[in-house]
Amino acid sequence: MPASDSFHDFELAGWNSPSVVAAYHDHVAALTKGCIEELLRAAAVTAADQVLDVACGAGYVAAAARKLGAVAVGIDFSPAQIRLAEQSYPGIRFIPGDAQALPFPDGEFDVVLNGFGMPHVPDPDKAAAEAHRVLAPAGRFAYASWCEAEKCIAFALVYDAIRAHGSLDVGLPPGPNFFAYGTPAYATAMLKRAGFANVAMTEVSLVWRAASADEFIDVILSGTVRAAATLRRQSADNLAKIRQYLHERIAPFAADGGYRIPAPALVVSAEKPQQ
Predict the structure, then answer these.
(1) Cβ(272)–Cβ(136) below 8 Å
(2) How many domains does the chain have?
(3) 239 lies in some domain
(4) pLDDT of residue 195
(5) Please, what is the Cα angle at 71 between 195 and 146, to 5 degrees?
(6) Distance of CA 78 to the CA centre of its chain
(7) What is the pTM of this model?
(8) Is position 217 within any domain?
């Protein structure tokens, strides 16, 4: 079910904050980069390919595709992310744009990639359909997204803590299920609706490394949008209880003088059929 336009505006405002972008780049990106190799492998990226990196953020995936010799273009709805990408990888073309209305003609690319962008679009069917549209026949699409909540403990703990000691109903625009895109049945159905074939998927075992429980919580507050806004709208008493709950729930993941919290992702790939 598509989310509202107000969800798009809420996400855009959050991801256009330079401080949020910087915190994500400094902390969360170390986690998401662990999927890039599998994302490129799943899409069979080669030096002969024209590659579009949708929801490119700071440009990590586009840069990895270029390293393989491909011609890569990055697109993101956040001007702040585009500025960071241009600063980080000046040899790559980055443009502002919407994953649900890509500003490219039909059949422009051999490969479309999306690293963790799907939970941030109001209508995933539109994003999948647009990826399909801009691909040439036999083109490949691959995306990475967090696994279902039962597996992606790092993010699930945050929402468990809020349910236990606060409320998820804090007046935010309704958005898509954060964990749905890493659920195999959902992913397969979504891509088939868009016209893709040969859907395949691989789980990538990512681990969120934090020096302390407070560092983990502070990164969620500073480097995310939806989770951070939900936390900030709790009462002071409830937020203190949420912190204590997270301290207790994170304790079993202590390792190497810090914490290693499971946050696996699913890399999903598919092909546009030959016409």
Answers:
(1) yes
(2) 1
(3) no
(4) 98
(5) 50
(6) 14
(7) 0.94
(8) no
